[in-house]
Amino acid sequence: MTTTLTPRPPATRRVERGGFLAALHAEWTKFRTVRGWVLAMAAALLATIVVGLLGTAAPGPGGSGTSTGTPSYPKGPGGEAVNDNFYLVHRTLTGDGSLTVELRSLTGAADTGIGREPASGAQPWAKAGIIMKESLTRGSRYAAVMATGGHGARMQYEFTHDTAGPPGKVSADSPRRLRLVRSGDSLTGYVSTDGSHWSRVDSVKVPGLPRTVQAGFFAASPQAMRETGAGAGFSPAAATGTFGTPFLTGSWSPGAWRGTQVGGDAGTSGSYSNTIKGGFTRTGGGFTVTGAGDIAPVVGGPVMGGGFSVENFLVGTFAGLLVVIAVSTVFITGEYRHGLLRTTMTAVPPRGRVLGAKALVAGGVAFTIGLVAAAITIPVGKSSALGRGFHVFPVPAATELRVMAGTGLLCAAAAVLALGVGTLLRRSATAVALVIASIVLPFLLATSGVLPPGVSEWLLRVTPAAGFAVQQTLPHYAHVLSVYEPSTGYYPLTPWTGVAVLCGYAALAFGLAVVRLRGRDV
Predict the structure, then answer these.
(1) Per-residue b/e over 461-493, b at no fewer than 16 CB within 10 Å?
(2) What percent of the chain has pLDDT over 90?
(3) Looking at the domain covering 82-299, what would its CATH class be?
C-alpha cells in the first residue's frame, strides 16, 4: 500500500516557526494592503485635528475675533494656572524668623446683584491670616496659615496644597492666634485659641524660597456662588480680617508696614466697588485688612471666563473615534463576511493568537492616530487661540504629555473594544452602533446638562465614556469653590482611573471574543 504525504502549506510552517510575531506581521500586512482601511485611518487623523481646531475657532465677544474680557492667569510653581489676588500688609523678612498674631474677627460682604446693599457674611473659603511669600509677583512660591469663613483653620502652600487645622469660626468671643515659623525652606504653621496651647497644622518645605521674603497679614475672598435662573452664578465678594498687635522674631525690615493689592482688584470693580474694595487701616497696634480674590489653583466651570483649556482643543477626538471604531470592527467582521477568516485560522491554528495580533495592529494604529492628532492639535490650537486674543489656561508640561498619550490610549482601547464586539456579533453595523452608543452617547448625555448631575456622574463612572477623563487638565480641588459637574467639564474619576474603566471594558470584550472564537466554527 502506497501512502501519499500531503506537504504542509508554506504559510503554516512560517507562522508556526515565528509564532505570534509571524501572526502579527501577517495581520499588519493584511491591514496596510487594504487601501480603504488605510485611507479611513488617515481620515480619522485628519478629522480629529480639523474638528478640534474648528471647535475652538469661534470669534471673541462681539464677533471681533478677540477676547477683551478674558482673564489672564499666571503660572504657579508647578506650571498650573493659578489665582493670586489678595490684599497684603507686609514687610520683608531675611533669613529665619516667625510671625505671630491674633485674628480677632473674619467678616465679609458679597455683591448679590439684586439690591442696593451687598450681602454680609464671609464666604466659606474666604480667608485671612499670615503669609510668607517669595515676592509680590503673581504665581510666586508661598506658605500661609489662616482662618476661613466655613472650613476652620488651614495651612496652604504652593497653591495646590491644603491641610486642615482646628475647626470653628473666628469671632470676637472666639479669636484665633496664628503663627508661621520659617527655618530655611521649611515653614511650620500653628493655631491656638488661648495663646498658650498651640496646635501644629502642618510643616512644609518650599524649595527655592529666597533668603529674603515678603511676609505679613492678608485677606482674600473668592467670588460668592449664587443660584440664578440659568444655573449657578458668581458675584464679587470680599473678606475683612481684624488682627491684633503682631509679634516678630528674626531680621525684619525697619519702618512701617506697607499695603499692596496683589494681582489687581480681583473682581471687585462691579456695581459695588465702593463697598467691596481692598485696603487696610491701623487699629491700635493691629490692622484691619480687607481683600478680594483668592490664592489657589484655577479650576474650570463658570469661573473660567472666556479662556480655553487644553482639552478644548481635543473635541475632534469624537470624530476620529467614529472612524477608528468602524475600521476596527470591519477588521474582523469583514473576514467573516467574505469567508476569509477560515483561511486565516488554517494558516494560524491558535485562534487566540490571531485575535491578539489583530488587536495589537488595530490598537497600535489607533494609538498612533490619537497621539499624533493630540500632539499636533494642542500646540497649534494654543497658538491660534493666543493669536486671536484668547487666554489658554496653562498646565504643567507633564500634564500635556499625559493628555497626548492618554488620547492615544483612549483611541487604542476603543479600537480593541470594537474588535471584541465585532468578533462576538459578527455584524459590522450592529457592532459599530453598539460601541459608539457605549462610548460617545453617555458622554454627550452627561456633559450636555440635560440629566441631573448625579445621573451624569454615574454615567461617567460605569460606562466606557469614563475613558474621556484622561483628557481632563483642570482637576477638582477641595479648597476651590466651583461647579464640579460633568456639564462644566469635570469627571468624577481621575484621568487614569477613567481610562482604566474603558480598558476594562475592552479587556472583557476581547476575552469573551477569544472564548467565543475558540468555541464555534468560523
Answers:
(1) bebbbbbbbbbbbbbebebbbbbbbbbbbbbbb
(2) 56
(3) mainly beta
